Each structure stands twice: as C-alpha cells, then as structure tokens.
Amino acid sequence: ALALCLALATGACVSSTEPILSDARAILGERGQLHIFSAPKDGARTVLRYDFQWRRDRYVTTPSRRAQPIEFTAHPFEGRDLVVQWKSALAWSPKQKPQGMRPVTYFLLRKVAQGAFLMLPVTEDEVDEATRKRFCVKSPETTCRISTPEQLFAFARAAAEKEDPRAR
Questions:
Q1: Rounded to whole angstroms, how far apart are CA atoms 19 and 4?
Q2: Which of 41, 69, 96, 126 has the most neighbouring CB atoms within 10 Å?
C-alpha cells in the first residue's frame, strides 16, 4: 500500500490547463492505495482513501463516498523526490468552471519509508517575487498558471527545499 500525507491547504497551488510532463510510467506499481491526510486542525486530521490502478498512461483512482475520482502521473524529479500531476477525473459543473475545465495541480512526492511518501503541494508561495513574476500567468481560475516543464521545475525545486511543518 502506498501511504501519502497531503497538506490540503493548496490555495496557492501552481496549476496548468493540461498536463505538462509526458512519458509517464507505472513507477508506483500497477495498483495501490492512497491515504491522503489533511493538515492537522484542532489536533485531528481527516483522511481520504483512494484505490488506484495504472491505465496505459496514467493512474486512475476509484471514487469513494467522500472523494471524487482522480487521474495522476508520477515522474522522477531530483534525489528521492517525484513530481505528481493531479487532475480530477470528473468534468467541472458548468456552474463552477467552464465546461470540461479540469485544471492540473502539482505536488512533490517524497519517499519517507518503503511504500510511504509525503506529498506536498507545489505552490507559488515558496519562490521569490521575481520568479513568480517571470513564470506565473494570472487567470480568473488561479493566481499562478504555468505551461512548461521549466516553470514547473522552478516551483518544485523551491518546494523540495522547504519542508512543510504542517505535515508533521
């Protein structure tokens, strides 16, 4: 089983309209289970559980009562880290977003033990103002839209250098 801890405070997440990284492989195995924990609130965490399976070019999760299905890919990054492209498998409702709009968000996946990873959001908050101005495109849906691997890696490196204290 693959255990993940995700700090869900992702308000300033870096996103794109389509996946930026290609050539995904089943580097997390053919199937597994995600356990995604929220950041602690009043000493408690909530957890979402997803079963996932590799399907040709991406992982797909099975929806549960509390969680929507997700599509994601994991890509080798630097050292013990991976970059995850994360996308809801359901189209947004017309009231929430334009028809078919499903933004891709990014996470840094850090191996902490055999079969266990810490998953941290890649946000614009970790970089300096000059990098934000250079790489972030503001849109009605987000404050930081990116479109190239170079942009993604700049934010991912910053996330890798800063460990999230909420994940402890």
A1: 21
A2: 126
